[in-house]
Structures are given as structure tokens and as C-alpha cells.
Design goal:
6 helices; 23% strand; 173 residues; 7 strands; seven-stranded mixed sheet; Rossmann fold; alpha/beta
Length: 173
């Protein structure tokens, strides 16, 4: 089993806000970004770990090619089609596309209190819009000093047009 992830106080604060936020009442939170290399996998992993540490049974879905997320979690490369235990109250499952993500959400219903989806970049993957519709809340990750303001605005616009509620922005780096 991977080493237990200990998210910072900031991620625990974000998790507490999301836990009490009516817009995330569905229990599904999409973590996304505008473009690649903005630190999204680390944010998704820390947010999911913070939710788990607060006592919420949390499933982390790797809907972006999950290699970075597996690395963040310290998990072996050989994945399964079953939920893998990362630490107490935190499971991980890699999914291939939005349809697989939707099936996983249906199956997770009674087993998990919260689901965090590590989604693909909004401006680079056509699949992103479908994932936005599955989430009740969304967290947008921007890279300090690297994300263009125009990309952040366009990503927020895509979220707004998809039905997902942008509940916060995390500045990574």
C-alpha cells in the first residue's frame, strides 16, 4: 500500500468548505485545469486525501490518463479495474473515458461519501464537457506564473456552460 498522504492545512480547509457547500451536495467534485502541466493531479490527490482524513469515504477517479495521478499517490503502474485502497477512507480507480466514469459513479453511490474526479484539461480534451456534467462542483487549478489569464477565463467559461458549479480556484506552484 502507498505511503499515507498528508495534505497541507490549506487542502484540509478547502475540503471542509466543499463538505459544507450546497453546490457540491451531489458529492462529486471535478478537479480540472485549462491546459496540461498545471499541477492538477497533485491538487486532486491532496483534496481527496483531505476529504478522507476528515472521515468522509472518498473515491478518487483518475479520468485523465492516470499515470501522473498514480505517481502522485505512490501506486504501482499496474492498475486494476477494481477500486484500489490508497489509505483509510480513500480509494482510487482509473477510468478510461466519461462513460466509464459515469458507470463508476453509479457503482460508488452507496460506498463513498465523496468522489473527486481528476479530469482532463478543459481546453485540450473534448471529453471534459461530459465530465463537467457529472460533477456537482468543480475546482479549477491554475499554475502560478504559467497559466495565461485568457486560458483561465476560457476554462471557467467552459465550466459555466457545462452545468458544473465553479466552487474554487487553486493556484498551484
Amino acid at each position: 500500500m502507498p505511503q499515507e498522504r498528508r495534505p497541507s492545512r490549506r487542502y484540509r480547509e478547502i475540503a471542509a468548505r466543499l463538505a459544507g457547500d450546497r453546490t457540491s451536495a451531489s458529492g462529486t467534485i471535478l478537479v480540472t485545469c485549462g491546459r496540461r502541466t498545471e499541477g492538477k493531479a497533485a491538487v486532486a490527490a491532496d483534496l481527496a486525501a483531505a476529504l478522507a482524513l476528515s472521515g468522509r469515504r472518498t473515491l478518487l477517479l483518475g479520468a485523465d490518463p492516470p499515470d501522473r495521478l498514480r505517481d502522485e499517490l505512490g501506486m504501482p503502474d499496474e492498475g486494476t479495474r477494481e477500486v484500489e485502497t490508497v489509505q483509510q477512507d480513500l480509494g482510487f480507480l482509473a477510468v478510461a473515458d466519461a462513460a466509464a466514469c459515469e458507470r463508476a459513479l453509479e457503482e460508488a453511490g452507496g460506498r463513498f461519501d465523496r468522489v473527486v474526479i481528476d479530469g482532463p484539461p478543459l481546453l485540450a480534451a473534448p471529453e471534459s464537457a461530459a465530465l463537467c456534467r457529472l460533477a456537482g462542483a468543480a475546482v479549477l487549478v491554475v499554475a502560478k506564473g504559467a497559466t495565461l489569464k485568457s486560458d483561465a477565463r476560457r476554462a471557467a467559461s467552459v465550466l459555466g456552460g457545462s452545468g458544473a458549479v465553479l466552487t474554487g480556484v487553486v493556484i498551484a506552484g
